[in-house]
Amino acid sequence: MAYMNFLAIYTEVISRLGNRTDIITRAKQWVNQAQFSIATSYRFFELEVSVTGSTTSSTRTYSLPSDLRVILSLRDTTNSRKLTQADWRTFDKLNQTTGKPSRYTRFGSSMELDPTPDATYSLSLRYLKRVASMTNDTDEPILPDEWIEAIILRACWIGALALQMLESSKSFKDEYILYISERKPDQVESSFDIEDGIGVRSE
């Protein structure tokens, strides 16, 4: 259980921005925006998911988990090999064949395998999940407790900019950067290539 829930966090943000009573709805948005930004910038084990499934003979396209944001890896555990990622444009040019899948492409909420499976093969999918918005006061951030202060500082930075409090915005930004610089190496030294949808680890 987190030591601060959504209510406590956005109330703290409002307090640091001068206790204005007209920014409650916006403060909630700033808090969620801050968590989204942090979650997509650093590595958090809490966002890493591993699921298993299997292919169906003659079926080429499969639905992805609804909370999937970035695919990290896809393995055929039946044949003990990793499938390589390919661009969907490449898949559109292929002459479809059947066999043991050796590559995949993601398009929207589905992935396509090539060759088209000719049998049932077990698959293991590792991915980063999306961060759900906090909406209820009792909701808790998905990030670890030591990152709650970072969420607050970044939300204050965002809010101060929105409220044209430029000097305060710079101060919150500086505090945020300093706080981030003191976080755990396993979180701040990893990044993800969101454009390609492939996990890129720097460690």
What does this structure look like?
The protein is an alpha+beta fold. It has two domains: 6-44 and 142-188, no CATH class; 48-129, no CATH class. The chain has six helices and ten strands; from the N terminus they run H-H-E-E-E-E-E-H-E-E-E-E-E-H-H-H. It has helices at residues 6-16, 24-39, 88-92, 148-162, 166-181, 185-188; strands at 48-54, 61-63, 68-76, 81-82, 84-85, 98-99, 103-107, 110-114, 116-117, 122-129. The strands form three sheets. Strands 1-10-3-4 form a four-stranded antiparallel sheet, with no helix packed on it. Strands 2-8-7-5 form a four-stranded mixed sheet, with no helix packed on it. Helix 1 (6-16) packs across helix 4 (148-162), helix 2 (24-39) packs across helix 4 and helix 4 (148-162) packs antiparallel against helix 5 (166-181).
Question: Beta-sheet strand percentage?
Answer: 15-25%
What's the number of extended β-strand segments?
10
Q: Regions with pLDDT < 50 over 5+ consecutive residues?
A: 191-203
Instruction: Walk across the major sheet and give the strand order.
Output: 1-10-3-4
Structural class of the helix and strand makeup? alpha+beta
Largest sheet descriptor: 4 strands, antiparallel
Distance between the termini: 29 Å
pLDDT averaged residue by residue: 90
What is the radius of gyration computed over CA atoms, rounded to a whole number of angstroms? Answer: 21 Å
Silhouette: elongated
**Share in helix:** 25-40%
H/E element sequence: HHEEEEEHEEEEEHHH
Number of helices: 6
Domain module tally? 2
